[in-house]
Structure formats: structure tokens, C-alpha cells
Design brief:
The chain is an alpha/beta fold. The protein is built from eleven helices and nine strands. The chain has helices spanning 36-42, 77-90, 104-115, 135-151, 153-164, 167-172, 174-186, 189-200, 229-238, 254-257, 259-271; strands spanning 2-5, 9-16, 21-25, 47-51, 60-61, 97-102, 120-126, 216-221, 243-247. Strands 1, 2, 3, 4, 5, 6, 7, 8 and 9 form a nine-stranded mixed beta sheet that branches. Helix 1 (36-42) packs parallel to helix 11 (259-271) and helix 5 packs antiparallel against helix 7 (174-186). Bound molecules: D-malate. D-malate binds at residues 27-28, 103-104, 199, 226, 252. Residues 27-28, 103-104, 199, 226, 252 line the site of D-malate.
Length: 272
């Protein structure tokens, strides 16, 4: 792991391998470890860069060492995209990247594409959405942002792990479920609040999907209840030339739940 200073924060980053840069951007409220199987599979051919985003995992504020010193400011999706460009600059990555994001990582991918098209070679969107939140979902986020300090991260971890996995994963990979529960529980509550506020104000990108002009792969777990296959298929259909892959025995965290199938889809896409 490296600690890379990008101004006001040090981002913890796993960087492995050489070649075309493959940037792996985690979901909420996780950390780069969610990509362990992809880091392993692709670092023999690619320069894999897997950061902990601002406030998450082992990333730390440069000044006082807390995960997130400005908890009241929303962690916006385009602010997080800016961080990633600063990270690429700090790592001296000059060529365009393959951007692979899961869920919140996908929300960030849309903003990265919008703001930094010259930095993008291809997109891999896992278990994500292009739509903004409906009013109810937005209120739920803001309620969590308000209540998290009092409720504690353990209760959120339990509630989320009940929803994000496929029933198959729940039954056959209890250690994976427990690991993700621990990651969520270990996330600073202020980061959870700030990211919820940031996601609540993210823009609806559905109308501009037709303008995406880089090779794109859309991957979804068949049992994803948060970004369901029908919605992700519609995203793929709206992006010119995009490929769509539905992965069995996986829910919202397909790259973890069924890594061999997701890796095969990514490999086929990258080999084309
Ligand atoms: C994620 O996995 O990043 C979250 O489900 C994103 C969200 O809360 O919309």
C-alpha cells in the first residue's frame, strides 16, 4: 500500500503491475479491498490502481490524520472524480485509464467521463445506476446522514449486508458477508454521512448516456436488488456499442460475490 498526497488528503492506494492503467473505484461504504480478486487477476497485464477514496478505508486527512476533517461538506461525486485525477497526476499516469467503478464508484465514473474525457480509455460499470435518487431515497439518505452518529455504524452494516448480497452468497460465503460487514462497521460515521449527502445530490446522467463514446462494459449481479439487471441493461442499451453481462450467483457486489465470472467478462472486454 502507498500513501499518496493529493493536497488535503493522503489517499491509501494499492498499485500493482505495469501496462495500461486500470483504475478500480470502490462502492459505498467500502474500500479498495473489495477488488482483491481483480487486483490479483489483472496486475500481471495492467497497471492496477485501487485507491481508498477520501474518508474511506485507510485514507487520511493530511492535516490532522482523521478520515474526513470536513464532515459537513458533502462528498460529491465530481469532487471524488477530481481526487482521482489528482491521484493519477501524483502517480504520473499520463495515458488514459480504464475506469472500473462499482455502484458509488460508477456514479463517480460518470463525472470522471463528463469532466475528464481525455483521461478515459474505457469504462467498466459494475452494479450501478445512472438515475438520480427518487425523493424517498434521497430523504432516506439524508436521514441516515443525520442519524448515523447516534445509530452507530454496526447497525448500518447489518442493515446493508442484509440487502446487498445474493441469497446464494448469504448462504455459501458467510465469511465474505462478515468481511464486508466489518468494513462497513469500521467506516468513519462522518464519512458515511458526507457520502450520503453527496450521493443525494448527484445528477441524473440517464439523458447523456448516448454521448458516451468510449468502449463500455456494463456488469450486474443477477440478484442485485439495488441496481437491478433490467435497469443496468437499459443503461447498456443507451450507451453506443456497450456490452452487457449479467452474472449469476451475485447481488450488488458482483466482483466479490462471483469474481471468476466478473473477471472473465472484464478480460473478454479488455482483450477486444
Ligand atoms: C454502493 O454500493 O456504492 C451504494 O449502494 C451506492 C448507493 O448507496 O447508492
Amino acid at each position: 500500500m502507498k500513501n499518496v498526497n493529493i493536497g488535503d488528503v493522503h489517499l491509501a492506494v494499492e498499485e500493482r503491475g505495469q501496462g495500461v492503467p486500470l483504475l478500480l473505484v470502490h462502492g459505498f461504504p467500502l474500500a479498495h479491498e473489495m477488488w482483491a480478486a481483480q487486483i490479483e487477476a489483472f496486475s500481471s497485464e495492467f497497471r492496477v490502481i485501487a485507491p481508498d477514496l477520501r474518508g474511506f478505508g485507510r485514507s487520511r486527512d493530511a492535516l490532522d490524520g482523521t478520515p474526513n476533517r470536513t464532515p459537513d461538506a458533502p462528498l460529491t461525486m465530481d469532487g471524488l472524480a477530481d481526487d482521482l485525477v489528482l491521484l493519477l497526476e501524483a502517480l504520473e499516469v499520463d495515458e488514459p485509464v480504464v475506469f472500473c467503478g462499482l455502484s458509488m464508484g460508477g456514479y463517480i465514473a460518470w463525472q470522471f467521463w463528463r469532466k475528464y474525457p481525455e483521461r478515459l480509455r474505457a469504462l467498466i460499470l459494475c452494479d450501478t445506476r445512472s438515475a438520480a435518487d427518487a425523493p424517498d431515497a434521497r430523504s432516506d439518505r439524508l436521514r441516515m446522514a443525520e442519524g448515523i452518529a447516534e445509530w452507530g455504524t454496526r447497525s448500518i452494516a447489518a442493515a446493508m449486508t442484509a440487502k446487498i448480497f445474493s441469497p446464494v452468497t448469504q448462504q455459501h460465503q458467510p465469511e465474505l458477508v462478515a468481511k464486508v460487514r466489518e468494513t462497513i462497521a469500521a467506516t468513519d460515521p462522518r464519512t458515511i454521512a458526507a457520502a450520503q449527502r453527496g450521493m443525494a445530490e448527484r445528477p441524473d446522467m440517464t439523458a447523456v448516456l448516448g454521448e458516451i463514446n468510449v468502449p463500455t462494459l456494463v456488469v450486474v449481479g443477477r440478484d442485485d436488488a439495488l441496481s437491478p439487471p433490467a435497469e443496468m441493461r437499459a443503461i447498456a442499451e443507451a450507451i453506443p456499442g456497450a456490452e452487457f453481462v449479467e452474472v449469476s450467483e451475485a447481488g450488488h457486489l458482483a466482483p466479490m460475490e462471483n469474481a471468476p465470472a466478473v473477471n472473465e467478462a472484464i478480460r473478454r472486454f479488455l482483450d477486444d
